[in-house]
Specification:
Blueprint (H helix, E strand, L loop, with lengths): L1 H5 L5 H28 L6 H26 L5 H17 L1 H16 L7 E4 L2 E8 L3 E6 L4 E5 H6 L2 E3 L5 E10 L5 H13 L11 E7 L4 E10 L3 H18 L14 H12 L1
Antiparallel strand pairs: 1-2, 1-5, 2-3, 3-4, 6-8, 7-8
Helix pairs in contact: 2-3, 7-8
Length: 273
Protein backbone atom coordinates (compact mmCIF):
# COMPACT_ATOMS: atom_id res chain seq x y z
CA UNK A 1 0.00 0.00 0.00
CA UNK A 2 2.79 2.46 0.94
CA UNK A 3 4.62 1.75 -2.31
CA UNK A 4 1.46 2.53 -4.30
CA UNK A 5 0.99 5.84 -2.47
CA UNK A 6 4.58 7.00 -2.71
CA UNK A 7 5.86 5.64 -5.99
CA UNK A 8 4.42 6.27 -9.44
CA UNK A 9 5.62 4.65 -12.66
CA UNK A 10 9.41 4.46 -12.45
CA UNK A 11 11.49 3.31 -15.43
CA UNK A 12 15.15 2.43 -15.74
CA UNK A 13 15.69 5.83 -17.29
CA UNK A 14 14.30 7.53 -14.18
CA UNK A 15 16.61 5.49 -11.95
CA UNK A 16 19.70 6.36 -14.00
CA UNK A 17 18.65 10.02 -14.15
CA UNK A 18 18.17 10.15 -10.38
CA UNK A 19 21.56 8.52 -9.87
CA UNK A 20 23.08 11.10 -12.24
CA UNK A 21 21.49 13.94 -10.25
CA UNK A 22 22.94 12.57 -7.01
CA UNK A 23 26.37 12.18 -8.63
CA UNK A 24 26.16 15.74 -9.95
CA UNK A 25 25.27 16.99 -6.47
CA UNK A 26 28.36 15.27 -5.04
CA UNK A 27 30.59 16.80 -7.72
CA UNK A 28 29.10 20.28 -7.24
CA UNK A 29 29.60 20.00 -3.47
CA UNK A 30 33.27 19.02 -3.93
CA UNK A 31 33.92 21.82 -6.43
CA UNK A 32 32.29 24.42 -4.16
CA UNK A 33 34.27 23.11 -1.18
CA UNK A 34 37.57 23.42 -3.06
CA UNK A 35 36.64 26.91 -4.24
CA UNK A 36 35.71 28.04 -0.73
CA UNK A 37 38.94 26.67 0.73
CA UNK A 38 41.03 28.53 -1.84
CA UNK A 39 39.06 31.78 -1.65
CA UNK A 40 38.82 31.96 2.16
CA UNK A 41 42.19 30.37 2.95
CA UNK A 42 43.68 33.65 4.23
CA UNK A 43 40.41 35.10 5.54
CA UNK A 44 39.11 32.34 7.82
CA UNK A 45 40.71 30.04 10.36
CA UNK A 46 40.99 26.35 9.53
CA UNK A 47 38.16 25.32 11.89
CA UNK A 48 35.80 27.98 10.57
CA UNK A 49 36.63 27.13 6.97
CA UNK A 50 35.83 23.44 7.54
CA UNK A 51 32.57 24.37 9.22
CA UNK A 52 31.46 26.59 6.32
CA UNK A 53 32.50 23.94 3.79
CA UNK A 54 30.46 21.25 5.56
CA UNK A 55 27.42 23.54 5.71
CA UNK A 56 27.63 24.27 1.96
CA UNK A 57 28.13 20.57 1.13
CA UNK A 58 25.16 19.56 3.28
CA UNK A 59 22.94 22.14 1.56
CA UNK A 60 23.95 20.89 -1.91
CA UNK A 61 23.32 17.26 -0.87
CA UNK A 62 19.83 18.09 0.43
CA UNK A 63 18.93 19.89 -2.80
CA UNK A 64 20.30 16.99 -4.86
CA UNK A 65 18.35 14.34 -2.92
CA UNK A 66 15.10 16.30 -3.11
CA UNK A 67 15.55 16.82 -6.86
CA UNK A 68 16.30 13.12 -7.40
CA UNK A 69 13.28 12.00 -5.36
CA UNK A 70 11.03 14.41 -7.23
CA UNK A 71 12.36 13.08 -10.56
CA UNK A 72 11.51 9.55 -9.44
CA UNK A 73 7.96 10.65 -8.72
CA UNK A 74 8.27 10.18 -4.95
CA UNK A 75 5.32 11.81 -3.21
CA UNK A 76 6.86 13.78 -0.37
CA UNK A 77 3.71 15.63 0.69
CA UNK A 78 3.13 13.55 3.78
CA UNK A 79 6.78 13.56 4.72
CA UNK A 80 7.05 17.32 4.23
CA UNK A 81 3.93 17.91 6.34
CA UNK A 82 5.24 15.70 9.16
CA UNK A 83 8.66 17.32 8.89
CA UNK A 84 7.11 20.77 9.08
CA UNK A 85 5.29 19.93 12.31
CA UNK A 86 8.45 18.42 13.78
CA UNK A 87 10.41 21.46 12.63
CA UNK A 88 8.01 23.84 14.37
CA UNK A 89 8.23 21.86 17.61
CA UNK A 90 12.00 21.67 17.46
CA UNK A 91 12.17 25.34 16.50
CA UNK A 92 10.38 26.44 19.65
CA UNK A 93 12.50 24.07 21.73
CA UNK A 94 15.80 25.25 20.29
CA UNK A 95 15.36 28.94 19.47
CA UNK A 96 18.49 29.94 21.37
CA UNK A 97 20.58 27.21 19.71
CA UNK A 98 19.43 28.28 16.23
CA UNK A 99 20.02 31.94 17.10
CA UNK A 100 23.53 31.17 18.34
CA UNK A 101 24.21 29.06 15.24
CA UNK A 102 23.28 31.77 12.74
CA UNK A 103 24.97 34.44 14.87
CA UNK A 104 28.13 32.33 14.75
CA UNK A 105 27.91 32.19 10.94
CA UNK A 106 27.46 35.96 10.74
CA UNK A 107 30.45 36.48 13.06
CA UNK A 108 32.57 34.23 10.85
CA UNK A 109 31.53 36.15 7.73
CA UNK A 110 31.74 39.64 9.25
CA UNK A 111 34.88 38.94 11.33
CA UNK A 112 34.69 41.82 13.84
CA UNK A 113 37.36 40.03 15.88
CA UNK A 114 39.81 37.15 15.67
CA UNK A 115 41.53 34.83 18.12
CA UNK A 116 44.00 36.75 20.28
CA UNK A 117 42.27 40.13 19.98
CA UNK A 118 41.70 42.26 23.07
CA UNK A 119 37.98 43.05 23.15
CA UNK A 120 35.07 44.20 25.29
CA UNK A 121 31.77 42.31 24.99
CA UNK A 122 28.81 43.17 27.22
CA UNK A 123 31.07 44.77 29.90
CA UNK A 124 33.46 41.78 29.79
CA UNK A 125 37.07 42.64 28.90
CA UNK A 126 39.56 40.03 27.78
CA UNK A 127 41.37 38.22 24.99
CA UNK A 128 39.54 36.06 22.44
CA UNK A 129 40.47 32.44 23.10
CA UNK A 130 38.10 30.69 20.69
CA UNK A 131 35.23 31.48 18.30
CA UNK A 132 32.96 28.47 17.78
CA UNK A 133 29.69 28.03 15.93
CA UNK A 134 27.57 28.46 19.10
CA UNK A 135 29.73 30.44 21.51
CA UNK A 136 32.81 32.63 21.93
CA UNK A 137 35.32 32.19 24.76
CA UNK A 138 37.17 35.13 26.33
CA UNK A 139 40.13 35.01 28.71
CA UNK A 140 39.80 37.91 31.14
CA UNK A 141 42.76 39.95 32.37
CA UNK A 142 42.88 37.92 35.59
CA UNK A 143 42.93 34.59 33.73
CA UNK A 144 39.27 33.54 33.89
CA UNK A 145 37.67 31.83 30.88
CA UNK A 146 34.22 33.24 30.07
CA UNK A 147 31.91 31.55 27.54
CA UNK A 148 29.53 33.97 25.80
CA UNK A 149 26.71 32.77 23.48
CA UNK A 150 27.23 34.01 19.93
CA UNK A 151 23.78 35.61 19.86
CA UNK A 152 24.87 37.83 22.76
CA UNK A 153 28.13 38.64 20.99
CA UNK A 154 26.36 39.51 17.74
CA UNK A 155 23.53 41.62 19.19
CA UNK A 156 25.55 43.58 21.77
CA UNK A 157 28.15 46.30 21.30
CA UNK A 158 31.59 44.84 20.67
CA UNK A 159 34.73 46.95 21.12
CA UNK A 160 37.93 45.62 19.55
CA UNK A 161 40.88 47.40 21.16
CA UNK A 162 43.37 46.03 18.63
CA UNK A 163 41.18 46.06 15.52
CA UNK A 164 43.01 49.12 14.19
CA UNK A 165 46.78 49.09 13.61
CA UNK A 166 47.29 52.27 15.68
CA UNK A 167 45.75 53.54 18.89
CA UNK A 168 45.87 56.79 20.85
CA UNK A 169 46.43 57.34 24.56
CA UNK A 170 46.30 60.58 26.53
CA UNK A 171 47.30 62.14 29.86
CA UNK A 172 46.44 65.25 31.81
CA UNK A 173 49.64 66.61 33.38
CA UNK A 174 48.93 69.24 36.03
CA UNK A 175 51.80 71.61 36.90
CA UNK A 176 51.99 74.41 39.48
CA UNK A 177 50.85 77.90 38.53
CA UNK A 178 54.27 79.35 39.28
CA UNK A 179 55.99 76.94 36.86
CA UNK A 180 56.71 77.84 33.21
CA UNK A 181 53.98 76.13 31.10
CA UNK A 182 55.77 76.88 27.80
CA UNK A 183 58.91 75.16 29.08
CA UNK A 184 56.87 72.16 30.29
CA UNK A 185 55.20 71.79 26.88
CA UNK A 186 58.56 71.96 25.11
CA UNK A 187 60.09 69.33 27.42
CA UNK A 188 57.14 66.95 26.97
CA UNK A 189 57.35 67.28 23.18
CA UNK A 190 61.07 66.48 23.25
CA UNK A 191 60.42 63.41 25.42
CA UNK A 192 57.79 62.16 22.95
CA UNK A 193 60.12 62.73 19.97
CA UNK A 194 62.74 60.50 21.62
CA UNK A 195 60.34 57.53 21.76
CA UNK A 196 60.75 55.33 18.64
CA UNK A 197 57.18 53.98 18.84
CA UNK A 198 55.50 57.37 19.21
CA UNK A 199 54.04 58.09 15.78
CA UNK A 200 54.75 61.30 13.89
CA UNK A 201 51.55 60.92 11.85
CA UNK A 202 49.03 61.36 13.36
CA UNK A 203 51.19 63.89 15.17
CA UNK A 204 51.23 64.08 18.97
CA UNK A 205 49.43 66.96 20.67
CA UNK A 206 50.65 68.82 23.77
CA UNK A 207 48.68 71.90 24.88
CA UNK A 208 47.19 73.66 27.91
CA UNK A 209 43.69 72.24 28.25
CA UNK A 210 42.33 74.25 31.17
CA UNK A 211 43.26 76.20 34.28
CA UNK A 212 42.23 74.03 37.20
CA UNK A 213 41.70 74.90 40.84
CA UNK A 214 45.18 73.76 41.82
CA UNK A 215 47.10 73.31 38.56
CA UNK A 216 47.65 74.32 34.97
CA UNK A 217 46.45 71.20 33.13
CA UNK A 218 48.52 70.18 30.09
CA UNK A 219 46.80 67.73 27.75
CA UNK A 220 49.04 65.10 26.09
CA UNK A 221 47.84 62.91 23.19
CA UNK A 222 50.10 60.33 21.55
CA UNK A 223 49.46 57.72 18.81
CA UNK A 224 51.32 54.40 18.82
CA UNK A 225 51.21 51.00 17.07
CA UNK A 226 48.61 48.89 18.79
CA UNK A 227 51.25 46.25 19.65
CA UNK A 228 53.33 48.85 21.55
CA UNK A 229 50.49 50.99 22.87
CA UNK A 230 50.34 49.73 26.46
CA UNK A 231 54.11 49.64 27.08
CA UNK A 232 54.64 53.11 25.64
CA UNK A 233 51.76 54.52 27.71
CA UNK A 234 53.33 53.25 30.94
CA UNK A 235 56.92 54.28 30.12
CA UNK A 236 56.14 57.74 28.77
CA UNK A 237 54.12 58.97 31.76
CA UNK A 238 56.91 58.14 34.21
CA UNK A 239 59.54 59.79 32.01
CA UNK A 240 57.46 62.96 31.74
CA UNK A 241 57.16 63.20 35.54
CA UNK A 242 60.85 62.52 36.08
CA UNK A 243 62.26 64.93 33.51
CA UNK A 244 59.85 67.73 34.45
CA UNK A 245 60.97 67.51 38.07
CA UNK A 246 64.64 67.50 36.98
CA UNK A 247 63.94 70.83 35.30
CA UNK A 248 62.30 72.30 38.39
CA UNK A 249 58.71 71.77 37.22
CA UNK A 250 56.63 69.84 39.74
CA UNK A 251 53.36 68.00 39.35
CA UNK A 252 50.76 69.98 41.28
CA UNK A 253 48.71 68.49 44.08
CA UNK A 254 45.51 69.79 45.70
CA UNK A 255 46.10 72.74 48.07
CA UNK A 256 43.94 74.96 50.26
CA UNK A 257 44.62 78.31 51.88
CA UNK A 258 42.96 78.72 55.29
CA UNK A 259 42.23 82.11 56.82
CA UNK A 260 41.62 82.34 60.58
CA UNK A 261 39.33 85.00 61.93
CA UNK A 262 41.56 85.78 64.96
CA UNK A 263 44.57 86.59 62.81
CA UNK A 264 42.45 88.92 60.67
CA UNK A 265 41.21 90.80 63.76
CA UNK A 266 44.73 91.11 65.19
CA UNK A 267 45.99 92.40 61.83
CA UNK A 268 43.26 95.08 61.69
CA UNK A 269 43.93 96.24 65.25
CA UNK A 270 47.67 96.51 64.58
CA UNK A 271 46.96 98.71 61.57
CA UNK A 272 44.76 101.05 63.67
CA UNK A 273 47.48 101.54 66.30
Amino acid sequence: MLDKVIWGTVTVFHLFAAAGILLLAVLVAKVLTLYLKRFFKEKLSRDHLQMVSKLVSFTVYVIGFMTAFAFLGLNLTGLIFAGSIAGVILGFASQSIIGNFFSGLFLIIERPMKIGDNVNIETINGFVEDIRILSTTLRTYDGLLVRIPNQTVFTNRLTNYVGNIVRRFEYVVGIRYRDDADLAIRIIREIIQQQPFALVKPRPQVFVDNLGDNAVNIFVRVWAPVSEWYDLKMILLWKIKKILEENGIEIAFPQRTLWFADSVVVEKESKRT
